Amino acid sequence: MFLVFSALIVTAIVAAAASLSAMLVQASFRVDEMEAAVAELSDHGEVLVTDIAELSSPSRIAKWAEGQGMVMPDGVVALRVPTGDQA
After folding, report:
1. Which domain covers residue 14, as residue numbers?
2. Does residue 77 fall inside a structural domain?
3. pLDDT tens per residue, range 55-85
4. pTM for this structure?
5. What's the DSSP call for residue 81?
6. How far apart are CA 47 and CA 58, in angstroms?
7. Is 86 contained in some domain?
8. SS3 for 30-66, per residue?
């Protein structure tokens, strides 16, 4: 009886260790997948920052505006609107 009980205990321990090992391997693969996704998203973010910089450059905007028929004003006048606080 003792041998059967011992064999069951040892089998349970081996099965638990194998199960734990499999779970750790799966977690490791998942971590690797997540790290690859983070790297890919980081690279994509850098591309987007570069695109923003290019698209918002004043020279590009000026060329686009010129192509749309817009012209620079000859003179700029700033108007001040009085507020109700002034007497």
Report:
1. 2-67
2. no
3. 999 999 999 999 999 998 888 888 889 887 7
4. 0.53
5. P
6. 19
7. no
8. HHHHHHHHHHHHHHHHHHHHHHHHHHCCHHHHHHHHH
